Amino acid sequence: MANLEDVPSLDLMTELLRRMKCSSKPDKRLILIGPPGSGKGTQSPIIKDEYCLCHLATGDMLRAAVAAKTPLGVKAKEAMDKGELVSDDLVVGIIDEAMKKPSCQKGFILDGFPRTVVQAQKLDEMLEKQGTKVDKVLNFAIDDAILEERITGRWIHPSSGRTYHTKFAPPRVPGIDDVSGEPLIQRKDDTAAVLKSRLEGFHKQTEPVIDYYSKKGMVANLHAEKPPKDVTVEVQTALSS
């Protein structure tokens, strides 16, 4: 824990003002669902800042729990070392732990979970024990063909994370980062073949989750093929209702 005396005054004031602004925001517990490349990663930081939520990405949380050697993290590492999938109960337990942090006081954005109906049911049970529930599920609906164009055209500058797209946001010089002049790379999973298998998994496993939450009247369908600014407007409309 940092000693507050050592924190610059401007940083303290900025954080105080942020917390005061956040105190008047409504609590939100959100799930983002969509295939790879549908724009969840673009919208989640905007939603997080607007509603003062914590962003719970299950992959990151698992890695953090393993690194911190929490009791659940130790169990998760045992499963991973054996090449097994981490059980749904363990993942829900890690989410439960993460939600107790002060940054999750106003609610959370869950991204990458639940991927199956069983996971959704376990998540609901855990939230029910806490006396809360999911408020809204944002479904980033998009056609597979559009995703292929989006993903296979994506190029990345590895050290900065800057991303380009051959069609939508090309670098000034093909294959070269605008800022550093270093070469761009394409991620191994940004290929049509990998996308095809990931989409098959998404349609088979995760689409039923959308039906599960639709029956509860929680789903807002977004037109994820639109430009990011338009999707942001749709998100704001969905979350203000």
Automatic annotation (TrEMBL):
- Highest taxon listed in the record's lineage: Eukaryota
Catalytic activity annotation: AMP + ATP = 2 ADP
Q: Does the keyword Kinase apply?
A: yes
Q: Does the keyword Nucleotide-binding apply?
A: yes
Query: Gene3D superfamilies per the record?
Result: P-loop containing nucleotide triphosphate hydrolases
Q: What is the documented function of this protein?
A: Catalyzes the reversible transfer of the terminal phosphate group between ATP and AMP. Plays an important role in cellular energy homeostasis and in adenine nucleotide metabolism.
The record's similarity note reads: Belongs to the adenylate kinase family.
Q: What name is this protein filed under?
A: adenylate kinase
Organism, scientific name: Rhodamnia argentea
Q: State which gene encodes it.
A: LOC115741479
